[in-house]
Amino acid sequence: MQRIYHNRLSAYVKSLNILPRVFMFFGNTPYLIDESWNTFTKTLQNRVSKRRIISKRLSPGTTAFEDIIGLIRTIPMGGIARAILVDHAENLPQKQLDQLLDALKAPVPSSWVGIGWHEFKLPAKVEKVAEEVGGVVVVCNAPRTNQLPNWLQSLAKQHGKRLNKDAASLLLEYIGNDLALLASELEKLVLYTADRKVIEANDVIQASSIQKVYSAFQITDALAEGNPEKALTCVESLLRSGESPLALLGILARHVRLLWQTRSILQEGKSIEDLKGYLKLPEFVINKLAQQAQNLTDETLKELHLLLFRTDVALKSTTLPPHFIFSHLILHFFRPPSH
């Protein structure tokens, strides 16, 4: 039995003269199990390029267990090769798991079987079967927090790009440690940078979905700082980039609601950790909301809420240009208090 990490799977499979019939993918990160299976099937197709491969992904609960076992034990016909992933095998009742493991001990020609086990450890009895059949165990646990920048840079390299350190840090700061979301944002950046080989921090701000979050914080920071010029610049930048006026209003309204929630929760004596549990947002966003909520009063938030409501009415009921309406919102916020 061979035990390897997910990022070495492709090179390992390419190096083998005879490909084992059983691969077991286990770990606490569904994204890595998905990607490892995709890597395996692509590499397998390259190895048997003269034959068509049928790849099937089956899960207990969505496919009858009898059908899963039947497919594993059936020889593919017509010169076809077959790759079967039995995903979420950890959900199988003990009796069915034993039947599945027995089926793995009698592999059929031109057929490869993968087991997806979505837990941090692979049970000893499952690993023992992998050893008996000369299978491969692929570790798909998430990188540690301090390893995430290198993981992102390695992923960028696979796309033919170099992700610089600041860009990686910014992505992690805004997105957190959700690997699927990080990979999705990186794909956007690869397309955005086109022929450029290096992805920089400014690309992250301009091209990824964090731009809206970043801009909402910038605008609110400017309001708290008493800087109408900065707030206007941020608004105009978003409108010029193609953001619809109502969508921009929605971004700001949601941000004000989050600030109100944050302020209320913190005033109850709750901690930042409690806040994370309530709001379910990336760590950077939580920390920034907490910072802004302390710099804004309840009266300020009420005033912002009222102005956003009036802006919504103006956008829907007048023909005034959107930038004029938003300028009015910001300048009205900074008007001298009436006596």
From TrEMBL:
SUPFAM superfamilies the record matches: P-loop containing nucleoside triphosphate hydrolases (SSF52540), post-AAA+ oligomerization domain-like (SSF48019)
Q: Which reaction does it catalyse?
A: DNA(n) + a 2'-deoxyribonucleoside 5'-triphosphate = DNA(n+1) + diphosphate
Q: Which InterPro entries match?
A: DNA_pol3_clamp-load_cplx_C (IPR008921), DNA_pol3_delta-like_C (IPR048466), DNA_polIII_delta (IPR005790), P-loop_NTPase (IPR027417)
Q: Which UniProt keywords apply?
A: DNA replication, DNA-directed DNA polymerase, Nucleotidyltransferase, Transferase
Q: Which Gene Ontology MF annotations are present?
A: DNA binding; DNA-directed DNA polymerase activity
Please give the Pfam families that the UniProt record associates with this protein. Answer: DNA_pol3_delta_C
Q: Among its keywords, does the record have Nucleotidyltransferase?
A: yes
Stored Gene3D superfamilies: 1.10.8.60, 1.20.272.10, P-loop containing nucleotide triphosphate hydrolases (3.40.50.300)
Q: Which EC class, in a word?
A: transferase
Which EC number(s) does the record attach to this protein?
Answer: 2.7.7.7
Is the keyword Nucleotidyltransferase assigned to this protein?
yes
Q: Which family does it belong to?
A: Belongs to the DNA polymerase HolA subunit family.
Please give the PANTHER family that the UniProt record associates with this protein.
DNA POLYMERASE III SUBUNIT DELTA (PTHR34388)
> Per its record, how is this protein called by name?
DNA-directed DNA polymerase
Organism this protein belongs to: Thermodesulforhabdus norvegica
For this protein's source organism, the top of the classification is: Bacteria, Pseudomonadati, Thermodesulfobacteriota, Syntrophobacteria, Syntrophobacterales
